Request: fold
Amino acid sequence: MLAQADLARYAGQFVWLELNYDSPENRAFLTKYGASATPTFFVVDSQKESVAATQTGAMSLPELKNFLDRGAKTVRAGGQAPADAALVRGDALLAQHPAEAVKAYQQALGMAAPTWPKRGLAAASLVAALQSDHQWQQCSEIAASEAAHMERDSVFGRTVMTGMWCLVSPGPAPWSKAAAAKLEPLAEEALQLPTTVRDHRDELYRTLMYLALSRNDTGTAAKLGNRMLEELDAIQPVNDEERSAVDIARVEDIQTYGDPARILPALIASERAMPENYNASLRVAQMESAARNYDQAIAACDRGLSRSPGAAGRSWLLRTKADALTQKGRTEEAHQALEGALKAAEAIPNQHSRETNTKTIRDLLVKAGAAQN
Reply:
C-alpha cells in the first residue's frame, strides 16, 4: 500500500517505519505499543511517544489518507472536543487494553452529535475493540446495528467483517442465530460493493463459509469457496507482496473448506517466482500436507528453512515438518523438529505471539511424548 499509494502530500509530516514480528530489534517497540494482529497501523507522536491513532487490518487508499490525517491532526491539536478526545483515547488503548478501549469508544459515541463525521469510524473501532476483548455477542450485535445505518464505504465492509468474525469465533450460541440473520445479508451486500477491500472480501467469504459449515451445508460452503478462488485467480499480482497476499487468501480458503489440489499449482508457481521467500515454501508445505503428500511437504519445509526465515517463520516451518514426519511414522525426527520449533518460538520478539506459539509447541511435545509411551 505505502509503496503504491500517492502519498506525496504527506512528505515531511511522517517518518515511515515498517516493523515485523521476526526481528529481535523490534521487540522494544512491540512491547511498548502492542500489536496482537497484523497488520496494525499506528501514528505515534514522536515528542510524547504516545499513540495518536490506531487502525487494525487492511485499509483502502481513502481510509489510509483519512487515518494519516486523523493522526496528524491529533498530534497538532492543542485541544479537542470531548468525543474526539475519547476516540483518540480509545485508539491509544486498543492494542494493549481493549476492554478500556471499548469504554472510550462508547463514550465517544455517547458524547457525539448524531451528525459527528467520525461516527462510522468510532463505531467500527468499537466493534474491533469488542472483538479484541472477546465480547462476541456485543461485537456481532453492535456491528449489525451500526452497519445497517452506515454509508456503504470501506468502513461498512470492515465493520461487517469484524462482526462476522465475532459471530463465528465462539461457535454456536443461543444468540448467534438472530445475529446471523442480520449480519449475513450485510456480508453479502459488502461483497457486492467495489469499496470493500480485498482482505475484507476474503474474510467475509471465509466467515460465510464457516456459518454454512456450522449448518452442515457443504454445498453452500463449496460455492462460496469457489467464488473466492475465482476472484483470486483473476488477480494479476503486480509484485511479490501482492502475490503473497493472494496466496495467503488461497490457503485460508482451502483451510476453511475445499480441495488443496485446487490451489497447489498456483502456490508452486509462486514459490518458483519468489525463490528467497520462505513463506511461499511454507504455504506449499501446508497444502502438500493437507493433500497427504507428506514427502513433498517435508521437502518444501526444508526449502523454506534454507531461505533464512526469522524466528516465527522457522518455528512454523519446523512445526509443519514435524506434523508431516509424524504422519510418515518418523516420530523421533518429528520430536527433534518440534524441539527446534520451540527454540525458535522462544526467540519471537512479539510477546503475545511468542507466548502463544511456545504454549502450542509444548502441548504438541507433551502429546507426542504420550503417544510414544
